[in-house]
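Second attempt. The first submission of DUF7718 domain-containing protein had a stray character pasted in from the spreadsheet, which I only caught after the job came back as garbage. Lesson logged: always re-copy from the clean sequence file. Corrected sequence (128 aa) follows.
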Amino acid sequence: MSAPSLPTGYDVSKHVPAGRRDCLLTVGVDQHQQHIPRFLVQLHYRVATDPIEWTAIARMDHNETSTLGHDVYHEGLHVDVARHSQPTVHLQLAHAPLPISRGAVIRSCANYLKREAEYFVDVFEGLC
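This time the job returned cleanly.
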């Protein structure tokens, strides 16, 4: 199976199943000792099959090391949602206080994108 490119520039990058044949998650994580200063979780959608072509349609990220980065502990969680022929939408998520464990936050982000994959595909395709 052809898969989307992994995030580059991270200490660890991997593919994660998204629960649909036409979707796949990619995760990138930087780890310095016991601390995770930066991560990226993306939902990819297969937009073509011959040849196979993937596009990132939703992303959640955290980067406390850059002045332009997004710190989920100060700004909260958000999702950037791509639309096929319109500008990307920035969704701010209501949530309880985040756990101290960055690993738990990353798993929660991945689970959220998996759970809402159908919605994000519909937004991308212009169906809602």
